[in-house]
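call fold(seq) -> tokens
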Amino acid sequence: MLPDCSQGDAMNRRSMEIVLIALLLCGVANTQTASDDWVGIWHANVGSLPTGTLTLATDTGSLGGTLVLDIISREEGEPQVIASEPHVLLNLSVSDRTLAFQVKMRHRDGGSVVASFEVKRTATDKATIHCTDCGRDAPVVELERSL
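ret:
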């Protein structure tokens, strides 16, 4: 008579299922970690003047957010924020220490243009942001994450 291995096979199958689930969860956790490292509110300032806010979250399961650009006027001598433009991030991607995205912006002539931005991490809570297709004089601005 052959030994009954059905209980052992069931236990081995169950153990393999647990190991497989654990491996899948580790893969998901590793994928989320790169995006989770960017989550927060990033403030752009030039001197003491705010110039924008980048807000990033993973509420939908993937990284997304908004960019609020402050409009600065220098007409009355001292620079001051006169308006703010909110934008939803489009085509967001994370690669190593760089975050890239696009925003749809209103053009002065009434139309719209898609602008590409690149954010490069310089420290845990510091980065730089640059519009890569906004012309040669587009500044590279420091960002700092608030917790």
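Strands lie at 40-46, 49-57, 64-73, 80-88, 90-95, 98-106, 112-123, 126-131, 140-146.
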